[in-house]
Amino acid sequence: MRILRLTLVFWALACAAAAPRAAIPEYGFEIVHTYPHDPTAFTEGLFYLNGFLYESTGLEQHSSIRKVRLETGEVVQRFDIPAQYFGEGIVNWKNHLIGLTWKSQVGFVYDLATFRLRRQFQYEGEGWALTQDGRQIIMSDGTPQLRFLNPQTLKETGRITVTLAGKPIRYVNELEWVKGEIYANVWQTNWIVRIDPHTGNIVGLINLAGLLGPADQIRGQTDVLNGIAYDEKRDRLFVTGKNWPKLFEIRLHPAGEVEPAAPTPAAPKVPQ
Q1: Mean pLDDT across the stretch 169-198?
Q2: Phi, psi (5° rounding) for residue 193?
Q3: Do 197 and 182 form a contact (C-beta atoms < 8 A)?
Q4: Mapping DSSP to helix (H, G, I), strand (E, B) and coil, where does residue 214 land?
Q5: What are the C-alpha distances in Å from 108 to residues 35, 61, 147, 246?
Q6: For residue 189, what are the CA distances in angstroms to 34, 96, 171, 184, 242?
Q7: Which of 69-78, 102-111, 232-241, 249-258 has the weakest average pLDDT?
Q8: What is the rounded distance in angstroms from the CA atom of residue 24 to the CA atom of residue 22?
Q9: What residue ranges in 167-245 does DSSP mark as E strands?
């Protein structure tokens, strides 16, 4: 059943990509910089703040929250989530960091500076990803719906359904707020979708096929594209994947306008 559902998602994305560009614009990418990324990090959440990346990783007994130096990939601060939880998306809100778990229906609120646990909260269904627009928290749960949460109480205040040409799209995963839109990975694909936060309509498609070259992929270890972060001050967009050895700063272009550029040399990784 899951394979069938994924096939339908792929089909919907492929049809949209073949549709007139004026209806649903498609974008390719140019690699601006390449940075080291911990290949053991099963990336679930990612955001950029004040010169650092904040990353959450998944899998029971291996989940963590990390503060990472962008230029080197060095983990400068880390909190290991209790072994029974599968860590999922994270987001900052003022002086807190909020994190989800996959199937446990429990989330955690940490002190952003110390990663000290402050409290926990409950929600129904699965937890996949988080972002925020400066007014509210936005959450994905693997369904076509995105939830809006009150940032103080973390109670749900509303929902939108993510649609592509009128059809609901499942497996909306890691989220990022970028210039008034919600960017989201579509799980098990090379696509990022750009979502109108008012209607749920997908207003753009980003094709990242070929971003991670074959030489950087290890069979049985390298997993799917997942992880989007945006530096608003410098207008920089970062993407990576689960167990990827690299994190990329990319620039978007209308499909066909620019061929993907050769990656710039990565900065040396600091041993950890």
Answers
A1: 97
A2: -105, 145
A3: yes
A4: helix
A5: 29, 17, 17, 28
A6: 21, 31, 10, 11, 12
A7: 249-258
A8: 6
A9: 167-168, 172-178, 181-186, 191-195, 202-207, 225-231, 236-241
Which tokens hold the place of 234? 């410098």
What are 73's two structure tokens? 């990939």
Regarding beta strands 26-36 and 202-207, do their DSSP bridges make them parallel or antiparallel, or are they unpaired?
Answer: parallel
Q: What is the pLDDT of residues 187-206, one digit of tens each?
A: 999 999 999 999 999 999 99
Separation CA 5–CA 11 (nearest Å): 10
pLDDT at 1: 41
Cβ burial, residue 24 (10 Å; 0-12/13-18/19+): buried
Q: What is the mean pLDDT of the chain?
A: 89
- Residue ranges of domains in the chain: 26-254
Backbone angles phi, psi at 240, to 5 degrees: -155, -165
At CB < 8 A and 24+ separation, what contacts does 205-208 make? 205/13, 205/16, 205/17, 205/24, 205/25, 205/26, 205/27, 206/26, 206/27, 206/28, 206/29, 206/252, 207/17, 207/26, 207/27, 207/28, 207/29, 207/255, 208/29, 208/239, 208/250
Encoded amino acid at 210, one letter? G
> How wide is the angle at C-alpha 236 spanned by C-alphas 233 and 239, nearest 5°?
140
Tokens of 87: 């860590």
Q: Is residue 226 exposed (0-12), middle (13-18) or buried (19+ Cβ within 10 Å)?
A: buried
For residues 192 and 184, the answer to whether their CB atoms sit within 8 Å is yes
Distances (CA, A) of 235 to 163, 229, 249: 27, 11, 10
CATH superfamily membership of 26-254: YVTN repeat-like/Quinoprotein amine dehydrogenase (2.130.10.10)
Mean pLDDT in residue range 125-143? 97
What is the CB-side half-sphere exposure of residue 257 using CA atoms within 13 A? 12
Q: Which two tokens stand for residue 93?
A: 């809100």
Partners of 47 in beta bridges? 54
